[in-house]
């Protein structure tokens, strides 16, 4: 019997994080971290499922679930082996469907839905292979990796041959770096101290704790009030001393000229990077800001819609740190393209995480990058926020400021059954009782 | 009694256009033109409703409807007069909602849903004022118009003061241009001859008919096969003679280098513009193409996600004709911003139309631009495709290659009740019987 994909189960899961002001920033004062959750079911006798999700911050998570449901005809009823053996083709079918692509193209709700399904398929593929996703990817040949990437719209910046060269160049050290990763983990930084909703005292305490826990970089949210930001920067710098790096994150709050003047006010406290200074669509605006605020460096990516926009950020020298997100673009395949673009341009990738489950996902991509693409952790850190990990079957493990390499098979994407049940919206006990 | 908005009714309406290959191009071989349709209901005693829609091409129209439904809490229950008197604030509330904006931000399904609701509110406002929308807008003061525009992320290219200057500069001739418009209409061009699914004989006949009907420009779809395109260009040029302009539309089919070489093959036949040569997100790619294929000019816009991306196309000199779409961005307010940006950069706006209802909507924006913004029809034409107009209460009227100015109150967005009923998906007779 050939196994088939028999179902695409979805769930609207929301965590009431706005009740605690965790995650508050200048643009997102009251997020309820949410997952439009997708489960791939099969009739294989291994009992395995593929789990994936799109991340949202509350309202509209139902629309995101509807967009995932619209993909059911593309996967359900198909032969499992054929699908998992050629995820490059599956990605193209989903992204380039002639009718669905009108809803983006390649952006927003429709694109994130594809990301959830693609990531769920990768979770299942890795589970069936008995490997964590980072390792499964890092053991593919350069040819297998580029077959997963769609080079449409990229060839003026990165061709298939150039991508192969990058991957072949990184092949010799794979085993050594895998051992290093399993021993030391991958560097992390923390955003936990810096939310706008926190008091100065809490900021001070959390900064000290971050240093004690070994994080080499911490990040503050800024952009609501300049005087507050100057005061909070001063507090943070006092607490961490001159050697720990401090980044700031404006969450798209500013226009170009405001960004430049605001950043210049904070620069004397020592800024490692300034993140999302303006609209994530504004490549040219970021380039103007980057050139004006140098040597402060610009970082962005969590809201960058797709690989074509990242290509332009790199071409225009509009960012110095590329912050890919595991659930914003169309899943693993598109992030492979983005990692290869970053490598081509020599820009370090420092993935966005936090929310719910984003740390769990993105660690795999960073670790794959280290082993098989960039071959380096220089200037590279993965964001870490200490929220909601307890709800996952295979939560991230941080030790001495490093993500420890996952060893369980899969993409670490799976929520515990009771977490799904309790936070189901609007009927789960967390919401129905509220 | 103060009137309230009492309901937001939605409908999934699809026309089976794929059965006839109308609308087939290199990226969209089999569209079913569809509307995610929104109706604003009130308890006012005038019996008026506001109609609007997002346009899609079939699959996923249900997701688009779900996104419109998610906006119900933002409008239903509110005082009608307050909403209609301050649509600038309503636009900001919808677009900048701190949770919903994660779904874009400002792009794709979520943004088009806002466009449908905003356009429905404008339809209702114009009906209550007893005026066609173009005229209602063209009679606003410059201050009232800029109050409708959100300048966030635009101020490095266009400030409120600069927009006011543009509008004040166009004030003196408003009455004269309104009279001209009511007398002559607004220039149109036709895409009807050029769909890829048509035979050479049909192309030949439709080209002749287009010239006979007075269109100064016609457009061919290209990008599937170069030899076919050369042959079809030759046929079209033979039929229309040297004076009628021919544009070509690749519907995003090419990478940058392919676009350049393909366009150079077609250029000897005389190209007025090349439309959508590559990804609509690729500002820098378009700029490279534009500079390489000059004097052939680049046009794009129907898939440009928002005003921030248009701003960059203008800054980068990546387009010579700006093809705004009435239902892709967040409705009338955002298109006011786009018209003002185009005026600032001196770029003619040649709106995208076709599909279902897009001609009906966009004529109002072009006519408003003529009367109150650019003050000119030089180099400007509105796309016209002769499909599906019979389903509208107030369909467009074309005479001597010109859109005749609508005189009925509203935004011409309203589908006939029987059209809604028959094409309702999946239960209407057109679909249930198929």
UniProtKB/TrEMBL annotation, chains A, B:
Ranges where the Mandelate racemase/muconate lactonizing enzyme C-terminal domain occurs: 200-296
Protein name: L-fuconate dehydratase
Taxonomic classification: Bacteria, Bacillati, Actinomycetota, Actinomycetes, Pseudonocardiales
Keywords: Lyase, Magnesium, Metal-binding
Reaction(s) catalysed (UniProt annotation): L-fuconate = 2-dehydro-3-deoxy-L-fuconate + H2O
InterPro entries (alphabetical): Enolase-like_C_sf, Enolase-like_N, Enolase_C-like, L-fuconate_dehydratase, Mandel_Rmase/mucon_lact_enz_CS, Mandelate_racemase_C, Mandelate_racemase_N_dom, RHMD-like
Cofactor field: Mg(2+)
Entry-linked Gene3D superfamilies: Enolase-like C-terminal domain (3.20.20.120), Enolase-like, N-terminal domain (3.30.390.10)
The keyword Cell inner membrane is assigned to this record: no
The EC number(s) this enzyme carries: 4.2.1.68
Catalytic EC class: lyase
Signal peptide (residue range): none
CDD domains: rTSbeta_L-fuconate_dehydratase
PROSITE patterns found in the cross-reference section: MR_MLE_2
Presence of the UniProt keyword Lyase in the record: yes
């Amino acid at each position: 019997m050939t196994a088939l994909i028999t179902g695409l189960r979805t769930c609207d899961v929301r965590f009431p994080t706005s009740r605690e002001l965790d995650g508050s920033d200048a643009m997102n004062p009251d997020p309820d971290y949410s997952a439009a959750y997708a489960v791939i079911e099969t009739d294989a006798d291994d009992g395995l499922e593929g789990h994936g999700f799109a991340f949202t911050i509350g309202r509209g998570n139902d629309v995101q679930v509807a967009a995932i449901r619209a993909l059911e005809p593309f996967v359900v009823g198909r032969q499992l082996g054929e699908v998992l053996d050629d995820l490059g083709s599956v990605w193209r079918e989903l992204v380039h469907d002639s009718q669905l692509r009108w809803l983006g193209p390649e952006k927003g709700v429709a694109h994130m839905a594809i990301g959830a399904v693609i990531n769920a398929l990768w979770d299942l593929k890795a589970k069936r292979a008995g490997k964590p996703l980072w390792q499964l990817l890092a053991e593919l040949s350069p040819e297998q990796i580029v077959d997963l990437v769609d080079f449409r719209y990229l060839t003026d910046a990165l061709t298939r041959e150039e991508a192969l060269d990058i991957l072949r160049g990184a092949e010799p050290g794979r085993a050594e770096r895998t051992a290093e990763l399993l021993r030391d983990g991958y560097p992390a930084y923390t955003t936990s101290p810096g939310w706008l909703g926190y008091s100065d005292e809490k900021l001070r305490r959390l900064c000290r704790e971050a240093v004690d826990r070994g994080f080499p970089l911490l990040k503050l949210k800024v952009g609501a009030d300049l005087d507050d930001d100057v005061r909070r920067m001063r507090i943070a710098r006092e607490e961490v001393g001159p050697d720990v790096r401090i980044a700031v994150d404006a969450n798209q709050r500013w226009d170009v000229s405001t960004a430049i003047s605001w950043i210049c006010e904070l620069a004397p406290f020592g800024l490692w990077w300034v993140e999302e200074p303006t609209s994530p669509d504004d490549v040219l605006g970021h380039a103007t800001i980057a050139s004006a605020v140098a040597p402060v460096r610009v970082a962005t990516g969590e809201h960058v819609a797709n690989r074509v926009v990242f290509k332009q950020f790199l071409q225009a020298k509009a960012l110095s740190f590329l912050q890919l997100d595991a659930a914003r673009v169309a899943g693993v395949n598109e992030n492979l393209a983005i990692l290869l673009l970053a490598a081509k341009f020599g820009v370090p990738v420092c993935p966005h995480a936090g929310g719910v489950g984003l740390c769990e996902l993105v660690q795999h991509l960073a670790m794959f990058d280290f082993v098989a693409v960039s071959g380096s952790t220089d200037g590279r850190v993965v964001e870490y926020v200490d929220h909601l990990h307890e709800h996952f079957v295979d939560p991230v493990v941080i030790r001495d400021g490093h993500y420890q390499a996952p060893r369980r098979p899969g993409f670490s994407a799976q929520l515990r059954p009771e977490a799904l049940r309790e936070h189901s919206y609007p009927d789960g006990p967390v919401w129905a009782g509220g």
